[in-house]
């Protein structure tokens, strides 16, 4: 069966790492993908006034899955609506360290399951008086239940024993109270082991003892920060893939941005993007191929060519070719 | 001139480290303090139904400064109103690593200047429908200006070249947009050097390269998380003091909590609390004595007795005596 994959490279190094991931997907046998490219980001905004043209929205909506690279200044105008287009309710962000790579904490293997529809991301803001502004953070029982269910299921499916529910219910008693109570009820229903953690204390513990954590279920903004924190533990954003998972659709993107400082030089690390493509494979049921791509990336990270962010002088193309070689 | 110091040990190890800090202050010549003790926390709530009795509020309000230890389950019910009682607008949290101590990042010297009156801490929450809750985050120009001014002044006074303004204005465009614009305007007015950083990216960079940062000016909740993150970098909460600074009053407390797991054993690390007392000395104009206390703590951390959290087997009393010896 042919799957249609929307490919949206976006800006900066998105233009370099997205084709690299597509090359890897094309190198797989037994996978039949039809790639359709769409535009988004600063460049298309400069040209047309719109960072995310309607054609690109339609493309992502109609595809079986989307690969997205990165966007520059317009990142929020591109990625937030794209997440809505694919109906994403869970942002899945694995952060793991790889043997042989320098990492602040070499023993990290954590997956952040970030609620992806509400919190401060609802965008409800106003200036209610001169110099007085508000942002209405929304937490619902439905969305909290859905993300907790997804998190507990993910942990079980992927062999993680530890589930941690992050919250700040000592201050946001009503909203994070609801998030916490709802997520705990899901854990109890499933008879699962879990812990709860205040997100500030959790930030400290993640830095000191990441090996104590497995799956971390988080409200939206907390997940944004905690997963970036964890990126720092394992050697930076060049290694972190992510999935935005909806009911019938999904979008895959590296956690990194468009990196304007190195864009155009052909030296961007394609690992995060290729690992995002591996998550896409899993999602479409190609588990074996997803594992093969991850194993190939891991092998190359261990003894293959490295881009400058990892201390080497290889190009994006060198790394991509090495990954394909390993497949 | 005699200063009246309110002393509120609170719960758990607060009962152990607070007297240690008072002992250190009493050992200083040229400092004339009158200590008056007040109750707060779980124990007094269990007894009276109130975690923060009116007498304790009055005590803190009338004192020249307050030393607060820690509270247990009632932490938010104690510390949030106490911060209001002293009119705190700036929560000052230095996070530095000490030579000779194990740290995830041994080259850290960062001071978080956390806005301390608004954001989600306004406590404006409601359940607007069954299973649908909101928290109204408030950001004002006045508070943003005040914290930015405090931050830039602090940096100048204490010899930090780098000021970073943390925000999430790409998502919270109106509220964090106001925070960011206002803080930037203060920096520009002063002709100061500063950077701005999205708080998620900042979390990553702080983990990887804390040496690149000096003073970080943050909205309230971001400051809560980022300063705990930094505690993880330097070896844990046992080392971090903090000040809650108001116009005419202030409260000093360790960043750590009541640590029920080790409370009552006499092995709590008093360093964070003693360093908080040093900040109190600075605040009341005893800069020389503040420096002396910091130097003594540093010396003891380097080659003196250590409590179990730092890998030693000394008691709270041993460390306190060693600090006093060094004075
Ligand atoms: C670009 C921004 C809107 C986005 C977010 O906050 O979700 C980014 O930080 C991310 O984590 O994907
Ligand atoms: C106890 C809690 C209300 C408090 C806060 O969130 O400010 C604590 O985390 C702190 O940082 O002092």
Shape of chain A: globular
Multimeric state:
homodimer
Radius of gyration of chain A: 19 Å
Which stretches of chain A are low in confidence, meaning pLDDT under 50 for 5 or more residues running?
Answer: none
Largest sheet properties of chain A: 10 strands, mixed
> Helices and strands of chain A, in N-to-C order?
EHEHHEHEEEEHEHEHEHEEHHH
Strand content of chain A: 15-25%
Concise account of the structure shown:
Two copies of one chain form a homodimer. The first copy, chain A, is an alpha/beta fold and 327 residues long.
Provide structural commentary:
The structure is a homodimer of 327-residue chains. Chain A has 327 residues and is of the alpha/beta class. Chain A contains 11 helices and 12 strands. In chain A, α7 runs parallel beside α8. The mean pLDDT of chain A is 96. The interface between A and B is large, with 56 and 55 residues. The structure holds 3-isopropylmalic acid (2 copies). One 3-isopropylmalic acid sits at the interface of chains B and A. Chains A, B: This is Isocitrate/isopropylmalate dehydrogenase family protein. Chains A, B: GO terms for molecular function: isocitrate dehydrogenase (NAD+) activity. Chains A, B: Belongs to the isocitrate and isopropylmalate dehydrogenases family.
